[in-house]
Design brief:
Number of strands: 15
Strand order of the largest sheet: 10-9-11-12-13-14
Order of helices and strands: EEEEHEEEEHHEEHEHEHEEE
Radius of gyration: 19 Å
Structural class: alpha/beta
Mean pLDDT: 86
Number of domains: 2
Number of helices: 6
Length: 275
């Protein structure tokens, strides 16, 4: 399934009107299902429907289950498949029969939008996922000059964004600024779930010696997902929300916002950035 959709558009520039072709970022629902329990009594549960840009769907499902605290590690999973009786927009994640998924951590309504994952939550208590205890006794240090370069490196990887201008992107870098992974999606939380799902399957977690770059703003949910993955340094091109900054401070994370050119703001964990 394509991640872009062709369309016809009429472009208006003052009195100049032109009919032409254009590309839009695809937005298609995807259902995540979970299968668990002993072979004699398998349970199949519909977990969520999310509006996403097709591509890296298996990673999206895995990352979602991990950042929601439903699974603890990649080894919990036996297979990720697309049931033949359904269309390609259904992803079935099957767990080892000894694994009891933390379904109680979800407490989420069945449908979530591409713009917001938190708004699908069924209760305020369910918003805060059970995150691992913070470990702030690290000696991570990153030069500001390296932080400046990250947005340009991400843009080079955002193929669909270049065609449509309609996607959020995120990227994972090592402490030397080498880009290791990047993902994009019409939903910012989906893009990060895809990235974390990919890192989980590659057995890279915890990502405690990596830098996460977000192409837009830093919301609470994105910071929480980063915490779940063990990320200590998050940089965003846009602004953080107040709760995102509070959460980063609470969990000992370095949070950078308004990263543009050779300037940025540090909202927490300033000791890790060498100016």
């Amino acid at each position: 399934m394509l991640s872009v959709s062709p369309t016809s558009v009429r472009k208006v520039n003052a009195t100049n009107v032109t009919d032409t072709d254009d590309l839009l970022a695809a937005e298609v629902p995807m259902e995540i299902r979970l299968e668990y329990g002993p072979q004699t009594n398998l349970i199949r549960k519909n977990i969520s429907v999310t509006m996403r840009t097709p591509g890296n769907d298996d990673e999206l499902a895995i990352g979602f289950l991990y950042t929601e605290g439903i699974i603890a590690k990649a080894a919990d999973i036996t297979t990720v498949s697309h049931p033949k009786e359904d269309n390609e927009n259904v992803v079935l994640v099957s767990l080892h029969e000894t694994i009891e998924p933390a379904i109680r951590n979800l407490e989420r309504n069945f449908y979530t939008t591409s713009s917001c994952g938190v708004c699908g939550k069924a209760s305020i208590e369910a918003v805060r996922t059970a995150c691992p205890l913070p470990d702030t006794h690290d000696k991570l240090r990153v030069d500001a000059s390296l932080i400046y370069q990250l947005p340009d490196l991400l843009r080079k990887e955002q193929e669909v964004f270049e065609n449509t201008g309609g996607l959020h992107g995120c990227a994972l870098f090592d402490l030397e600024g080498k880009l290791l992974l990047s993902r994009e999606d019409i939903g910012r939380h989906n893009a990060l779930d895809k990235l974390i799902g990919a890192a989980l399957t590659k057995e890279l977690l915890p990502l405690d010696e990596h830098i996460l770059l977000l192409s837009g703003r830093a919301s609470f949910e994105l910071v929480q997902k980063a915490v779940m993955a063990g990320i200590k340094i998050v940089a965003a091109v846009g602004a953080p929300s107040s709760l995102a900054a509070e959460t980063a401070e609470e969990w000992g994370m370095t949070l950078v916002g308004f990263l543009r050119g050779e300037r940025f703001n540090i909202y927490s964990g300033a000791e890790r950035i060498v100016i």
